[in-house]
Amino acid sequence: MQAELQPSNIGPPGREHLGLLPPPSPQDDVANRKLVLPPPRVRRAVRAVAEALFDDETPPDPARLDWAADDFLRFMVTATGRAHLILRASLFALTWLTPLFVFTPLPFAWLPVKRRVLALERMEHSPLGPAALAVKAMLCMIWFEHPDTQTETRTVPACKEVA
Amino acid sequence: MAGSLQSASRLAGELRLDCDVVVVGSGAGGAVIATTLAEAGYDVVVLEEGPHVPNTGAMRPSESIRHTWRDGAVTLAVGLGDSPSINVTAGRCLGGSSTLTGGVCFRIPDHVLDGWVKEGLTDLTPEKMDPWFTEVERDVHVEEVPANMRSRGTELFGEGFSKIAAPLKPMRRNTRGCHGCGRCNFGCAHKAKLSVDIAYLPRALAAGARLYTGCLVGKVEFSGTRATGVSGRILDFDTQRPSRPFSVRAKRVVLAAGAMFNPLILAKSGFKNPVLGKHLSLHPSFRVIARFDEPVRGWEGAMQSAYGDFYEKTDGMLFNSVSVPTGVLAATMPGFGTAHGKLRNQLDHLAIFGGMLHDDATGTVRPGLGREPIMTYRSSPRDRARIPVLLRRMASFWFEAGAKEIFLPVFGVPGQTADSLKNFPLEEVHGRQMECSSQHPLGTCQMGVDPQRSVVDDHGRVWGTQGLYLGCGSVMPSSLGVNPQLAIMTMARRTAGLMVGEGR
Q: Cβ–Cβ of A35/B138 closer than 8 Å?
């Protein structure tokens, strides 16, 4: 593809005529990458953690949980390098080690939600706490990107002023 | 003649190129060098490992991270001994890490340059560096952030900081037309942040440079001690796994792959040096979050608008305003379920500020099993002792501004009031319980005057080779103590100027 420089007012003063770099073609757009998602048991584990993390006086919206779990998986398989490995390892620890903090040798997703919350809180206070952080951080990030969450928590993104 | 920008994964057959100069990496260093050389008439090829993602401003933050941040933002420098492990963020896309900075532009402080001069780098005086800085500042449009662009959280921290230390100073950033949307590091919807993919690479392209994305450089090729090009693998666009080989023959090679990857490429190329990969400086950074009775809505305003350097010269501490997505704020809150929910529902009352250490550069980068490096970091006793001091200072600024409680970067620890913090054993918290981050990996191929104690000379030339230059944060002769984007661009501009001066 030969570069076509488009006129624009964007860029440093005096260089506006150079414009921006040409956009990628649709086949080179990262949004169109073909993804291979992990097996359903991984999705169940992610959803079980999300259900416990966002449990409140009222249970979280199931559709939003599904959306968050699906987007978490898309993140996991899209991110390069060790992200996939670390998130999978973190999920493994959450699935199999967390239940031991409530003395229940069952997979995490099999525990009642309140029991999961207790197990996660105990794990967070243990030396294994950082193991849960990667999953917690990514789930929180995705959860708060949902427009309904932003409305409910008064966190709709906004800019300071129009330049 | 205009150049070209291509995704190498779409090219048929093996990619073989010839050029005057091949530049590995398109970030703050590589883009500046490529532009300077292309505009000087050289035939330049730029190789970037990551993709071209110009539309991050329209993405959700987590989408931006998955597509343009290395390792999905989970890169870690493993803490040794009682040192915290440090989450290191870096870019992996056209424009490199410059696309995910807050736009902060500091000149290298005079006292740091003076230290380099004492080590023999006599051309790096503040006076001799001034023209390079001035040129780059013009090229990327460095301007002060006006006070009315500060978030409410920054204003509150500033109130506390003023009472105890001094007023905050306005940050200088490479922006034009900022709307204060607080998401610079996830992509600017208004293209107001003049990262190198906006400020420099269009110039390189206009001057005829050829840019290729999806090229993972493995090693530098040599004929004797002369660098003759680079070789590596093209990455499959969908899986990002290495596939077909490529090679570029060049009269000169510039490695600008950053402090994490330059030492790996050199090591794989057979280059040996006692300090290669050592002296990794990270500027370990810590956040302290404060809860106020009033709504703060800290995301409204420039992401980085003000700083406090009152303690930089004496204690090596810099305080930088910052904002993070609400989801990241939520993730730093302790607990799960209802306990976490109480905090989640107060996110609009939380304010955040960052504190950064001017560290002693005690990290190391080594080759790992895969293509990613292994980074380790053992804090010096001086650095380790300053962590609780830094955190207590930040807490005191917040309480002085009226915060009801603060949240320390210690895993699982609930909020602390001014009274409870007095009794909290912060000095005894183990490093592995601490949350620490870095956006500034530097110095693993240091510049110096002694080939046994440095990797490049004062022109950026790799000792013991011909035609091989380094031009990124890896060459910094020491920790800087300030955000390094402008320093990297300026050192790269200087190296490119010297290359042009050397002639063809």
A: no
